[in-house]
Amino acid sequence: MTRVLVTGAAGFIGSHLVEALVARGDEVTGIDNFDPFYPRAAKERNLREVGDRPGFRFRELDMLDADALAPLLTPDTVLVHLAAKAGVRPSIADPIGYARANVTGTATVMEAARRAGVTRVVFGSSSSVYGDATPIPFREDAPALAPVSPYAATKRAAELLLAALAPLHGFRAASLRFFTVYGPRQRPDLAIHAFARRLAEGRPLTLYGDGSQSRDYTYFADIVRGVLAAVDWTAAAPVGVDIFNVGGARPVPLRTLVSTLAGAMGIEARVEWAPMQPGDVQRTCADLEKSHRVLGYDPSTSLDEGIGRFVTWFRGTYAEKR
After folding, report:
1. How far apart are CA 65 and CA 77, in angstroms?
2. Which residue among 53, 92, 141, 220 is least crowded, i.e. fewest CB within 10 A of its CB?
């Protein structure tokens, strides 16, 4: 049994991770502040799906409150820090809010960990740190010095902050760069979920660029397996931070994604084209050699399978709202 504290536990990835940790017998504390970036009801539904499970307790708590967070931690706790403001385009409109949540928030969480004597840390970062100039496929040793959005910059800043703190306080940490996560419980602002709503309502999709830009879509269950592997890896890791890509390694063009989603829903997509948006990158693709070698990470969910499961969930959730 491992004792784990998960920040952002009511969110998309966080709620699925909590389920997986509890299922394998770990003792889990989850915190979330229900940030109004998207409706509280969506996160409350996530927690209802997790259910009242033995070994799991939830606290509504802001990660920026180190005094409240530190007592929930013990020296043998593994801290999994997923809480963040997400989204490229919203970060352009609110760089101060993103810096506060993603950089100051990470500093505060790590200060609480230091006070409690925590040494094992897993941090949820993002493939966005690679920017638009990193050679494909993205390797963890790429410089990642040219982010193209405030969101990407704050995630890279948080990585660097953790790298500075680790040797000072004895943290044994994994920084996981997630690649375009999708699946049941996906945030309503993310592309697949937003597209599904518009398709279901008979509205056209607005696509930016020419449809050739591609993303390394990664099903949530593969992401969760990567996080679990990183949690276990920290038990014997050296002091410091190591970076791992957690992706699907199968980039999918935007046009293909839309046709796959529309086909799974049995709806013909109507598309309206618009110019590329500031902060968007042309493509993402994970090099998984290191993650496979060190963590044993091996994604297994195809896009067709993952989209099918998402559509099943979406239809059930959408039907509840009718």
Report:
1. 18
2. 141
Res 276: pLDDT: 86
Catalytic residue among 98, 130, 151, 219: 151
Mean pLDDT of the chain: 95
Strand partners, 180: none
Tokens at residue 154, please? 């704050």
Q: How far apart are alpha carbons 179 and 125 in whole angstroms?
A: 9
Confidence class for position 21, pLDDT limits 50, 70, 90: very high
pLDDT at 262: 98
- How many CB atoms are located within 10 Å of the residue 276 CB? 12
Is the per-residue pLDDT at 105 higher than 90? Answer: yes
Domains of the chain from N-terminus onward? 3-182+219-247+285-300 (3.40.50.720)
Active site residue 98: no
Helix (H) or strand (E) holding 180: none
Beta strand pairing status for 218-219 and 120-126? Answer: unpaired
Q: What are the tokens at 153?
A: 């910059």
Nearest to 55 by CA among 1, 17, 105: 1
pTM for this entry? 0.96
pLDDT of res. 319: 62
Is cis: bond before 204, omega within 30 of 0? no
If one counts every other C-beta atom within 10 angstroms of the C-beta of residue 171, the result is 24
